[in-house]
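Go through this:
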Amino acid sequence: MNIYALSSGRGPSGIAIIRLSGKDTLKIAKLISKQNNLKPKEVNFCKFYNPTNDSLIDEGFLLLFLSPNSFTGDDLAEFHIHGSNAVITCFLRVLSMQVNSRLAEPGEFTKIAFQNNKIDLIEAESIGDLIHSETELQRQQAVKLVQGKASNYYNNLRKKLIKSLAYIEAKIDFAEDDLPDSIFKEVQKSIKEVHNDIKKILEDHKVGEKIRDGFRISIIGEVNAGKSSLLNLLSKRDVAIVSEEEGTTRDVIETYLNIDGYPVILADTAGIRDSNNEVEKKGILLAISKSKQADLNIVVVDNCSAQIDPKVKNLINENSIIILNKSDIDNKKNHNFKEALLVSVKHNKNIDQLIIKIKDKLSKKFVTTNDILVTRERHREKLGACLKEIDNFLAKDQTKDIEMAAEDLRLATRHLGGIVGKVDVEEILGSIFKDFCIGK
């Protein structure tokens, strides 16, 4: 089956790119371009025709990549045409009329590339992350993954497990060869190294996922302290209703922001106070819960209030930024908070200092013992499952429970291979033949 799709954004635009991949790609490209001497990996200037009536669709460039030297691993063509909606629609309609051709499903080109071993699962996922990246941090993280740094790291760990498993399997299957007992010491040492490496990866405070999905920041404080106004100011639009009436915000209002390159999910919460209103009470409980789940809290204090509610003070910790709002008003109290920022949301005063402080606080979240960051819960689950099986292996007496120990390693290898999409029993056999020359 041949698949096709518009790979660039919808028009109108100067250029549009339509991709076609499959076994009949070259045949279809020749048919539409009326050229039999198309050159792969070169720019072919062509006119494109509707084969049913020979009418001209457009003229542009055709790039041809023959299997296996293409992104998908199959024959692939890219048609660079003018980006009007009419031209795009006409071209796609012509492709739909070709035998065994259909519109590609979302991500299908990348899926085929994975199935043809052109990329692994992490690289496939990172392509999606790169496409959807909105901040510089997200772009940087996705590019590192696309380049295969994490894949290489996991593959190296997996190779260590496979080699250790090969030794264990050899000991089971060829016991009469009297393989030295030092093999178990080597296996123990190698497995412990893998165990420590995985443990370090998992001790990352989920920074990779937070870069991908956004750091969670909650704006908390008393009623009418200026929380909703701050949300609107940082969002540069009216996200929350601002009113002189106390208790206007009762639910959590969230918005996604790019704060100087940092992806952030900013939440405005209900003002914290004693209330008899059941709806507001639920909103206050939700605000407190959100603050405890947040990576960072911006505690907004009305600098004109005589005292601060103890419940607000109890939420202040090392993950908090305290701002004393309404600092432009003469009736300020100058509450004695360490490292508090004097701001005026109304007059946009010192908000740039707040952004600097937010970046500084978030940057400290990057402290990790390993530069390989887990970016998806799927990876974290697989690593955790691998670690559990290694723990089971290390807890056994490998000389007595050698078959069960081998099964633990086999499962650990499978979990680790699941991250990059590789699970192959033949690799274990290959390692045995390579290391022990069995079968000569």
Q: What stands out?
A: The chain is about 45% helix and 20% strand.
